[in-house]
Amino acid sequence: MRRTNNYPYQPLNQQPSGPSPAGHDALEAENERAAEELKQKIGALKSLTIDIGNEVRYQDKLLRGIDDDMDRTSGFLGNTMTRVVRLAKQGGGAKQMCYMFLFVLVVFLLLWLTLKFK
Is the pTM above the cut of 0.85? Predict the structure, then answer.
């Protein structure tokens, strides 16, 4: 094995009379087969890359939708909490808060019973 510049390259043994036509045809056929295999692998990788890109775009769209929904929900929740605090600070707010707590408790109890015995 002859190494030049630390590359493991082995030149083809050529006969003094030149390469035989049969050997040249065999090398050409092997090169064509290798090129065809590379072409198929490149096509598969291209298809896979396109599919990955489509999936990324789809999931990005879903995440943006979820982000928008969360922003709207946090705004709604913030407004609701402001109203609840204002209601609690008003006179007679304790009685109204008790009614609201009991209402929420009854709603959750009804939902639980509905789902349990469905």
Answer: no
